[in-house]
Amino acid sequence: MTAIPPILLVGLGKMGGAMLAGWRERGLAPSVAVDPMLPASPGPEVTVVADVAAIPAGFVPSAVVLAVKPQNAAETLPLYARYASSAVMLSIMAGRTLAGMRALLGAAAVVRAMPNTPAAVRQGVTVACPGPGVTAAQRTLCDTLLAAIGSVAWVEDEALLDPVTAVSGSGPAYVFLLAELMERAAIEQGIPPDLARKLARETVAGSGALLAASAEDAAVLRTNVTSPGGTTAAALAVLMAPDAMPGALSRAIAAATARSRELAG
Predict the structure, then answer these.
(1) How much is the pLDDT for 257?
(2) CA torsion, points 138, 141, 145, 148, in degrees to nearest 10?
(3) Is the pTM of this model over 0.85?
(4) In angstroms, rounded to a whole number, what is the distance separating the alpha carbons of residues 34 and 245?
(5) How many helices (H) and strands (E) does the chain have?
(6) Same domain for 129 and 253?
(7) In the chain, which stretches have pLDDT less than 70?
(8) 166 domain-assigned
(9) In the listed set 123, 140, 161, which residue is the last one of a domain according to the structure?
(10) CB neighbours of 156 closer than 8 A, spacing ≥ 6?
(11) Residue 50: which residues within 8 A CB-CB, separation 6 or more?
């Protein structure tokens, strides 16, 4: 298992906290996290400070992980430009482009990445794109940092990260909505709320596990469940109507992609 060198984590929210937990499991060198809310320290190897001015003198990170809200990038990133000469900048901010971040950080080596919330249970998927000047060693380090929370894929075309954000970055919310709506519909059909919740959650979780374990296409797995003229076929006739789930999901992902581009500023 690869040990994690000193990291400067900017933002200790849900995703930043999930990443930090994954690094600690792999053996994290003494590191620093910056968060104005000053949450409890996640471990003895991490010093949590309120702002950049409180970072201990002499601390030299191998990577600066930017886990702040994209709306705060313009005011936050210049504060960390002093680390650009020695550390790779790994951003998980939705929408913020490599060029836009380099304009705020100077001639920095920046990697743009989009993880998702299953990172909290080390089942995330992240797509990353290296910017100009990122060395092979820096890319390997970023891959190691991201692999601590799940699988990692790399692309050279940065434009792909906007639809990636819409599909996998926002995707867990779509799955949770499915579970929410299944639970509600079950209650409408007379199933007691506790049982409705159990059926919806465990059906979604179990189906995801089956999909992950199977080499077959999702469409094949769907067909395997669907007997001609049966109950599943009756439900899918409603869900797969052109103006129902296929059209709605296509429009939803298009809307999320457009918003990711808007966040570039």
Answers:
(1) 95
(2) 150
(3) yes
(4) 42
(5) 10, 8
(6) no
(7) 1-2, 265
(8) no
(9) 161
(10) 129, 130
(11) 34, 35, 36, 38
